[in-house]
Amino acid sequence: MLFPDDLIIKKNCSKEMIKLHRKFNCSVMASMKVKKKDVKRWGIYSVKRKINKQNFLIDDVIEKPSIIDAPSSFAVIGRYILPKNIFNKLKKQQKGIGGEIHITDAIRKLIKENYKFIGHNFAGKYLDCGTMSGYIKSSLEISKL
User: Fold this and answer.
1) Contact 7, 73 (CB under 8 A)
2) Is the pLDDT of residue 84 over 90?
3) Which pLDDT tens digit goes with each residue over 109-138?
4) CA–CA dist 132, 11 (Å, integer)
């Protein structure tokens, strides 16, 4: 699954995630370190343990936590390799923050059921199109390619 407002350029993040999925036979989610003051904009990972420099086993994920409640500064970026039964979880999912159904909440349930998820700190350049200023900056960046 790819979110259209999260762009990653200059390095194929999805290709690296597929390699991880095949190697570990589990779900993989893109990750990026964000400023502590910005954690409330993102789903934030709780890290169980590092696998290597770029990858870690996910212990939990919390959608848009407060600065105090954020378990780390590693944010969910809109790239996912998920198990098929995520759709069963989403069908039963209650609305969360902002009155929306969040994929993060369904993923959290799977993690609690011992599904294995890996966070991948990608090497490409992230462009945030989720705000008007981010969209404008991203458009300018893409125009240079």
Assistant:
1) no
2) yes
3) 999 999 999 999 999 999 999 889 999 999
4) 24
Q: How confident is the model at residue 98 (pLDDT cuts 50, 70, 90)?
A: confident
Nearest alpha-carbon partner for 10 in 124, 123, 122: 124
**Strands, E, within 1-144: which ranges?**
6-9, 27-33, 43-50, 55-63, 74-81, 117-121, 125-128
Residue 61 in tokens: 């994920």
Kindly state the tokens that stand for 79: 């790239």
Measured distance CA(74)–CA(61) in Å, rounded: 10
Q: Cα angle at 130 between 121 and 71, to 5 degrees?
A: 45
Q: Domains of the chain, with CATH numbers?
A: 6-143 (3.90.550.10)
Number of other CB atoms surrounding residue 72 within 10 Å:
20
**Distance between CA atoms of 102 and 90, rounded to whole angstroms?**
8
Phi-psi category of residue 99: left, alpha or beta, with phi > 0 → left and psi -120 to 50 → alpha: left
